[in-house]
Write a structure and sequence with these properties.
heterodimer; A: 120 residues; mainly alpha; B: mainly alpha; Rna Polymerase Sigma Factor, Chain: A; 9 helices
């Protein structure tokens, strides 16, 4: 058998909660639409930032991979030596300053002879 | 803020509006928010005990709904889906705060209520119920709000809370018992 006190309690609980069931807020829909537009713009910026970052990474990778290898640099060095391009050779080695100090005392032709001599 | 009860949304119309929202139609979105926000804010207010937090969370629910609009499949009623998102946000809010909400709902009596005894009793009773509900364990509070305030069936509540129906029934039974205990000053020892 139903307890009448329980029935009253249940009814009053339902009545109390149902009074707070709908809480309409004036202008809420406009606020939400505004927030969603902001969110949409933010996500577009994030998406394009990601694309730009990925593109930059690809560019760096391409430049790095297309740079001359160590072996190619060696070949270039030997070729320069063979053609007696002493100034370029010095630049390549980053020792142009040092060689410029020596240049008054060293004849270019003698350097070429030494470097081109068999067994050098 | 007004307490008027909006027209209950039509499921088929919700589906149509969601399809439009997925295509970026802001007017459809505005209409959906207008239809559903009052119920959502009502539920969230019962959960978190604060009008401002309830509105913030309701806003986040609609932002998430908008993000998911293109992936949304109308397997459940939109209103249930919204409550589902809201419940997850409530759980996140509790985790973020590092504690369960224990504060009672803000309560404001209508001016002039004090002149009428029956109105005063209703106001006192509402306040007492709200305080008592705030003291319930979170899962009991959610279950009792969803079944009594939102009038959802047990199956929907179980889906929203991600638990078996039997757990929902148990929580509701315990919540009622606990509320009776907390409100014994109003109802006596029953």
């Amino acid at each position: 058998m139903d307890n009448p006190h329980h029935k009253t309690f249940d009814q009053e609980l339902a009545a109390s909660l149902s009074r707070g069931r709908f809480v309409a807020v004036t202008g809420f829909a406009d606020r939400v639409v505004g927030a969603i537009r902001t969110d949409r713009r933010r996500r577009v910026v994030i998406r394009w930032s990601s694309i730009a970052t990925a593109a930059a990474a690809c560019l760096v990778a391409v430049l790095t991979l297309s740079a001359p290898s160590e072996e190619a640099l060696n070949r270039q060095t030997f070729a320069l030596v063979a053609h007696d391009e002493s100034a370029q050779f010095a630049d390549l080695l980053g020792a142009s300053a040092d060689l410029s100090l020596l240049s008054p005392a060293v004849e270019k032709s003698s350097v070429a002879e030494v470097l081109n001599a068999p067994g050098s | 803020m007004s307490q008027e009860e909006p027209m209950l949304p039509d499921d088929e119309d919700d589906k149509r509006l969601m399809a439009l929202v997925a295509e970026g139609d802001d007017d459809a979105l505005r209409l959906l928010v207008h239809r559903h926000h009052a119920r959502l804010v009502g539920y969230l207010r019962g959960e978190v005990g604060s009008q401002a937090t309830a509105e913030e969370l309701a806003m986040e629910v609609f932002i998430r709904l908008h993000r998911a609009a293109s992936r949304w499949r109308p397997e459940a009623k939109l209103s249930t889906y919204l409550i589902h998102i809201a419940h997850n946000l409530v759980l996140n809010e509790w985790r973020r705060r590092g504690r369960k909400p224990t504060t009672a709902l803000e309560f404001a009596a209508e001016p002039g209520d004090s002149s009428q005894q029956s109105a005063r009793r209703v106001a006192e009773l509402d306040e007492a119920f709200q305080r008592a509900i705030a003291q319930l364990p979170p899962e009991q509070r959610t279950a009792i709000l969803l079944v009594v305030q939102q009038e959802l069936p047990y199956e929907d509540i179980a889906e929203i809370m991600g638990v078996p129906v039997s757990s929902v029934k148990t929580w509701i039974h315990r919540a009622r018992s606990r509320l009776r205990e907390l409100l014994k000053d109003f109802y006596g020892n029953q």
